[in-house]
Amino acid sequence: MKKFTFLFTLIAFTLTAWADEIPTISPSAVFTDPEGNEETSTDFSGSAPVQAHFSANPENVGAYEAHYEWRFYTQGNEDAPYLVRYDQNTDYTFTSSGTHLVVCYATFTLGTDTVAYTREYWNETGPIRLVISESKLEMPNAFSPNGDGINDIYKPKSGYKSITEFHAYIFNRWGQKLYEWTDPSTGWDGKNNGKDVKQGVYFCLVKAKGADGKIYNIKKDVNLLRGYDETTTSGNQE
Q1: Beta-carbon count within 10 A of 45 CB
Q2: Distance of alpha carbon 164 from alpha carbon 110, whole angstroms
Q3: pTM for this model (two decimals)
Q4: Rounded Cα distance, 71 and 85, in Å
């Protein structure tokens, strides 16, 4: 009886030790939105462009030979990935709207032994999921660069989404270009060559593209209200 108990204990210990040495993966993703905010998640929603860093996070690899295959696909297209990467860790910038799914197929081999994390593994755990919103872009028709810290910069209205290309221009009434910029989070401060321009009406032209393929050609009069008092009003003018 003692021999049987000893043998059973030895087998259990061996199996446990062997299990502890099996290679494993724990894929993760860090997403960075257009404002530079980072989030570690397996289910992320945001506005394009979204930068992502994917890590396989393998453990217990030891002498095993590792092979990684990151697959990027859209909803319903698991068998037709639009991108495949073969690194342990990889970076990608998402610029198209819709639902993106990412999985890492990992295979570890040692002699005749193979440990694989492929479709069956991901069917159980679920893929990394990223939802990119449809685009939105609106420009105000007035701003008040008077130094009160409220609406001092002419830029897109808050709430713009998934803008992947952006170029804006400011012209005076004679058609002279006073300013241009390519980042929708910034804008015009009401100056030309470092000097304040006069209060009045100017013209804005915006050419942009959204993650959903939408093209924006915005032409708008801009009222520069330098003496406007906004002590009780905040945000961009309609």
Answers
A1: 15
A2: 45
A3: 0.78
A4: 7
